[in-house]
Amino acid sequence: MTTTLHETICMAKQERHKNLFLNYKNLNIFPVELLKDEGLQFLERLYMKRNSLTTLPDNLAQKLPNLVELYLHSNNIVFIPEAIGNLARLQSLDLSNNALQMLCPEIGRLKSLRHLRLSNNQLKCLPSEVGDLKELETLDVSMNQLISLPDTLHHCLSLQNLTADHNCLRHVPRQLCWLHRLNQLSMAANRLNFLPLDLGRSRELQFVFVDHNSDLKGLPSYLYNKVIGCSGCGVSSQVQEEGTNDTLGALPAEVKLVGTSAGTVVPLEELALRTLHQVYHHRLSDLHLLPHLTLPKSLLELLQFPLGHCHRCSQAMFTTIYPKLFPLRDTALAGVHRRTTVSFVAYCCSSRCLRTIDLQG
Fold it and tell me: Which Gene Ontology cellular component terms are annotated (predicted)?
């Protein structure tokens, strides 16, 4: 350890500093001086950007118990020890530009965490325990190798900003539509070919960026009055799967029937699910308390998170949809989004709603 670094840490201990800056120090290992004796009990913010660290010490929380912000941007960190979960007061954790291949489940024990930045790593998945971060407001997992997001992410009820650009995502969990504080969603440069039918239904969600998803042809009509980015969408020359409407694009696997304005009969299965939804709707938040024999768990989850809601009358939909396309080039937004061939798609619950829906009326 250099004399200057030693003096910096000793002074921080003696004067009970709350902030410590150790950026650009060519550190290969975590400074031992930070962990000696009682550590830095008063330290709240530790900046260690652009070093060469490969991991963190197991006793970090013991020696720095009051740490609120930890900035480890641009190191060579390969893994985070389980003890990271002991940083009870931590609110901001920046691990961007490292070499993380996995994130330990103990990350979910950071109950005070508000900002988690994991961009530009090598992550292929996120632990389901991320959903335990009830105070999380910002999550940045861009520039990784993610093929999906955890189904538990909708439990992060405080989430406002989700960035997952430049991954390998093929779909967006429809449960994200129930994050009523989510204000900005960015999933540019992935492999998306459809979006949740209800995306944009929340008034709080105002900014959606899905640029450069070349197989994405349809935008849910709830996004019509939002700030959207869709450059480079719908330009793929890839042949559509058999049975898929080439103009409409791909659809969620739950869709069993795509109705038209000429169809007047809604399938019995769809009617039954809509009826069940109405019965349980007033106590959806307590569905997990119902007797297990009442309905299968999978069915209860479907009732809690329908496939979508009719843009005309807000009727919940489960297996049957009646879509109507509004090509972006024919809307007032055409001049803003020039390099795209996508359409807004209004998903309706019946042929009657399909005939009367009009986004621009």
Answer: cytoplasm
SS (H, E, C) 112-132: CCCEEECCCCCCCCCCHHHHH
- For 186, residues 6+ apart whose C-beta sits below 8 A from its C-beta are 142, 162, 163, 164, 165, 207, 208, 209, 229
The C-alpha atoms of residue 84 and residue 18 are separated, in whole angstroms, by 20
Q: What global pTM score does this model have?
A: 0.91
- Main-chain dihedrals φ then ψ at residue 21, nearest 5 degrees: -105, 115
Residues 6+ apart with CB under 8 A from 157: 134, 179, 180, 181
E-strand ranges in 76-166 read 92-94, 115-117, 138-140, 161-163
Tokens linked to 323? 């879509």
Report pLDDT digits (tens) over 293-318: 467 777 777 888 899 999 999 999 99
Which residues are bridge partners to 325 per DSSP?
A: 345
